[in-house]
């Protein structure tokens, strides 16, 4: 088995071992996808497990196990097969495709965005975190808009909409995600008007 270079980090090994059971069945396709990066037919043919594939990518300096930014380069190829997403600041999320319902990208209307941005105000950070934004997202929004809370909320919603495929906790329904978030940030009183504006019924979502 190929020995992992610079892989003494327990965190690095944990990430690899956690993803391997999901990705192992795609090994042959992944080897083809990474043929250019590996740049050696002999080395490519010697890869028999997902762990070995990662080890070779580390050896080829495509991934640096100590630098999370390099892990994001795996996203485009991994997401061809599974909903696995590596983040620069907090590891990765794994959601196998065969556990997902069919997704529909649902966009929020202008009146819903105006309503939310005028009601959530200073609670926008918790609102964003509970929708799946990372601390890096929160810091960037705060740096950009400071105390312009309505604009902060709009930015939270925009980031969420652009990334709902992996942020969503309800298999891709942003209306359901937002309803649940109201409760988590003690804004349950927003639910009736939100329901009216969106026509969303939590007991019987469309």
From TrEMBL:
Pfam families named in the record: Death
One BP term from GO: signal transduction
Full protein name: Uncharacterized protein LOC113213861
Encoding gene per record: LOC113213861
